[in-house]
Design goal:
single chain, alpha/beta, 8-stranded mixed beta sheet, two-stranded antiparallel sheet, globular
C-alpha cells in the first residue's frame, strides 16, 4: 500500500513543460501560463463543445488537476477523465445544459498546500500543524512543499481566472451556472470553495474525497476538523448542490467511515434534501482517472441538468 500511495500522490504533478491536451470531442483553447499574483502561474485549458456559439450563453464547470481531464497521452499513467467525450455526449443528448469546462493545472509540488482547506488546517493545534509540515511524501520530498495556501488559490479562481473566463467566453456568470469539481484533494478544495464562496459557486463535485488529508488514518485529527467546518456551513446546502462519492479499492479503501460521517451531517444535522445532496458508493472502484471517468456523468447530470 505504501508504494501505491507514493505513486498516486505523484499522479497529478505536471512536467516542467506544459503539454497541450488533444481532444476527440469539442475544442481546447490552451493557455500555457496563466499569470497570477496570488499563486504560481499555471496552464489552463478551456474546453468548448462542438457547437460553441458566442451568441449563446454557457454554464461553466471549473475543474482542478486540469492536466488529467482530457488527454491520457500527456499523463504519466496514460489515464484521463474523458471529460471532453462525456461532456459532448451529455450535451448532444440534452441531458445537461450547454457548458464549457475550465481545467486548471495544479501547482506541481505545491498541490497539497493549495488544495488542503486552509481554515480547517488552521483550526488544528500548532503542534499538529508543525508535525504535518514535517511529513514526507517520499524520502526526499515534503508532503507540503509550502505553507497551506488554499485561500489564495480560491482567490485566484474567483478574482483572476473567473473574470477572465467571463470576459473572453459567452458565459452565464451567476452562481446557478458556475460549478466546481475535483477528485481526492481536488474534492476537498471543491467543498471548501463552495463553502467559502457560495455567492460564486452554486454546486460542487467531490469525487473520492481525501478526508484523511494525509496518508495515515491512525490518530488523525484532520477528519474531525473537516466535520466541524462542514457543520458550520451546512446552511449553504439549503440552496446549493453538492455531490460526493467513493470506491473501496486502493486509496479509496480508506474513505468509507469518513464519508459516512459526512453524509450523516448533511442528512441528519443539516436536514439537506436529495435535491441538494447526493453521496454514492461504487464497490470495486479505485482511486484513478479511469474509475472517475466511468461515473463522471452522474454528478454532471445532478448539477448541470
Amino acid at each position: 500500500m505504501k508504494t501505491y500511495l507514493l505513486l498516486i500522490v505523484s499522479v497529478y504533478f505536471s512536467t516542467c513543460f506544459a503539454q497541450q491536451p488533444t481532444v476527440s470531442a469539442g475544442k481546447i483553447d490552451f493557455i500555457p501560463s496563466f499569470h497570477s499574483t496570488l499563486v504560481s502561474d499555471r496552464s489552463v485549458a478551456v474546453w468548448l463543445p462542438n457547437d460553441y456559439n458566442p451568441t449563446k450563453r454557457y454554464a461553466v464547470l471549473y475543474m482542478h488537476d486540469g492536466k488529467a481531464l482530457f488527454d491520457s497521452t500527456i499523463m504519466w499513467n496514460k489515464q484521463e477523465w474523458q471529460v471532453d467525450e462525456t461532456m459532448q455526449r451529455l450535451i448532444d443528448s440534452k441531458k445537461i445544459k450547454n457548458t464549457i469546462v475550465v481545467g486548471i493545472w495544479n501547482g506541481d509540488a505545491k498541490r497539497h498546500a493549495e488544495y488542503f482547506p486552509e481554515k480547517p488546517f488552521k483550526s488544528l493545534s500548532k503542534s499538529t500543524q508543525d508535525s504535518l509540515y514535517q511529513l514526507n511524501r517520499d524520502a526526499n520530498t515534503r508532503m507540503f512543499a509550502d505553507t497551506v495556501q488554499s485561500d489564495n488559490y480560491l482567490k485566484f479562481l474567483v478574482t483572476e481566472l473567473k473574470p477572465y473566463i467571463d470576459k473572453h467566453y459567452s458565459t452565464l456568470a451567476d452562481k446557478e451556472h458556475t460549478i466546481i469539481a475535483g477528485a481526492s484533494m481536488g474534492g476537498l478544495i471543491s467543498l471548501y470553495a463552495i463553502c467559502e464562496y457560495p455567492n460564486i459557486f452554486g454546486g460542487a463535485v467531490c469525487i473520492s474525497t481525501h478526508w484523511p488529508g494525509v496518508f495515515s488514518t491512525q490518530n488523525n485529527p484532520i477528519p474531525t476538523a473537516f466535520y466541524t467546518y462542514i457543520d458550520q456551513h451546512l446552511a449553504v446546502f439549503k440552496t446549493h448542490k453538492i455531490y460526493f462519492d467513493y470506491g473501496d479499492q486502493t486509496l479509496d479503501a480508506l474513505y468509507a467511515p469518513f464519508q459516512k460521517h459526512v453524509d450523516s451531517l448533511f442528512i441528519y444535522k443539516g436536514k439537506v434534501t436529495k435535491k441538494h445532496f447526493q453521496s454514492r458508493f461504487f464497490p470495486g472502484e479505485n482511486h484513478s482517472e479511469k474509475s472517475w471517468s466511468k461515473r463522471f456523468e452522474i454528478p454532471l447530470q445532478f448539477l448541470l441538468k
